[in-house]
Amino acid sequence: MRSLHASNAHLATWATWATCWAVVAGSTPSPAVVAEKHASELDLNCDSYEDGVDWSEVRKRLFEFLVNPSEPHPWLGSLLALGRTQTDCYIGLCCLGYLAMIFMSPEKRLKALMHTLFGSVPLWDQIPLSYWDTIHSRWPIFGLLEIVGAQVRDTSEAWELFWNQSVPAVPSDGARWDADGGVDGRFQEILEKQLATGAPLPSYTAIRFLSKTWPGCSFGKATAFLVLAERLLLVDSNVLTQAAKDFMALGEAQLDRCAVGRNVTVFEQMMSEWPFWGVLRRVEANERVKLPSEQLRTPPQYMSPVLRPAAGLHQPGGFQHPSSSDVAKPKDGNIQTISRACEARDVHVALSGDGRHMEGLLAAMQSLILGTKAAERVCVHVFALKAEVTGLLAAFRCSFEGRLDQEDAGGEYDFRIDGVGVQIHIFTESEVLTDDLVVDAGVTLETGDLNAPHNFVRFYLAKWISASRIVYLDTDVIVKGDVCELHDMAFQSSREAVLAAVPRRHLPLSFYLKVFSPKMPIWLPSTAPSFNAGVMVIDMKLWERLNVTNAVLKWARQNKDRDLWRHGSQPPLLLLLYDRTEWIPDVWNVDGRSLSWIGLLPSQLD
């Protein structure tokens, strides 16, 4: 590669400052923090931001730089200075960080890559988007990675670190990180010549290479898949655009899965001679990706019957329409009779939390009761293990002394509080928690005890509650509106929705699900919004008709090796019901605080 123009001595200083915004100052953010930060972006190209920066001009300058990186550019200093900008334009800042590395000394560049999120983690942990959607954001991240990678491979110190620290994880268990002569070497040579001349990359050569190379994972196969994606994008065809996206996803999976047991880091990818980033740089520069991946689940104007995924997987939407014999029938005695406290009530609310969540449960109950305008409509169903019942009843009597009416309610576990009916349901752990649903110990250390049986009660509500519609609330919720209004407004716009919930547009499905796992359904749109299952309305009739509970257990069995998700009860709902969920206004679930505020935004609480 030609040496870069560096006549301005201050560029190295700007480079260091620009990188310090996220990586050098004190402590390095964890990958989870970065993923959450980026996932908060609704406008990925940042054109609508009002932070004093013309981000469209920044993108234009970055592409200009990539056309002639070794030429002098008078605006480079001011561009690098933007790395210190206080902004939420996260991908833009990542691009500026890599731009800064280009002008660092080899020692500083290597240090930044080895000890920060720019190189020490998989690309996904830095930018949690698919390659397709990263390119669709219009930021030239892959072109910048290509230049930095070429610079890093040119230093002996990088190779020493790579062989001493990285290699044992990269080519293990048969994965191929770099070309190994023979068919690999010949294909790599052709690619380098074509990229150097700017000529179209030969699709027939890529296909021949894929047919002759070895069957295991390799960066060479990744490059071949990306070549095929670029070739298909040259043709203006909706169907071929869909196929191009699929080839790009295959290439991405080869790159990210070549290290058995974990994903490959950006630094490790930089040390490969395969020009996969060069191929993606051409796709970026030509602006061939015009649609986000969520719009390509089925090719536009595709009139053939809906394609079904591989045998054993559900069709899009997560369900095969069951026959009447397939619909799960409640076991005798599972659905309890409605207590006297809940007679003639149509708004049913479910809450479940163990002793550690007792204060939250009581606060949720108090706020729900105070916000309800028609107490005679509401029945709250509280779930407890047998060992928890005595303490739960004592807490209710203490907290709602003088307001709790048990005389006319019909039993010890049925009572009213300010007119709102309350029914306590006793369940056993074996009724809701199977070995298939148990969460890894490592995850529970990160997020708390997701193996608590209460987390899985939501899948079995039909055992205890006979209602056509149920409002489910987590015990960390403060209700600032009328739960009857939430109940009544749900399912007004969709007859096919099983759930009604607030979308988390800043957290795509790929934040919770391992979208590139070979076991993941091919129809899953990785960038579709997720939702918080801690506040939702459930259409119980449709839930039962579609046999959702059994579908959850089926997918949990397929997730035995944690190939689909790691966390507990929310991911299977996202996988099965992402397109069977009706979005309700954000005001009904204002999260991001220690508690979720339901019904009113925090600014309205004063």
Short précis:
Residues 313-332 are annotated as: Disordered. It comes from Durusdinium trenchii. With 606 residues, the chain is an alpha/beta fold.
By secondary-structure content and strand pairing, the structural class works out as: alpha/beta
- The portion of residues forming beta strands comes to 5-15%
- The order of strands across the largest sheet is 3-4-5-2-1-6-9-8-10
Count of DSSP H/I helices: 24
Using the CA coordinates, give the radius of gyration. 28 Å
C-alpha geometry: elongated
Main beta sheet strand tally, sense and closure? 9 strands, mixed
Quantity of strands, as a count: 11
Keywords: Glycosyltransferase, Metal-binding, Signal, Transferase
Protein name: Hexosyltransferase
Pfam family, one: Glyco_transf_8
InterPro entries: Glyco_trans_8 (IPR002495), Glycosyltrans_8_dom-fam (IPR050748), Nucleotide-diphossugar_trans (IPR029044)
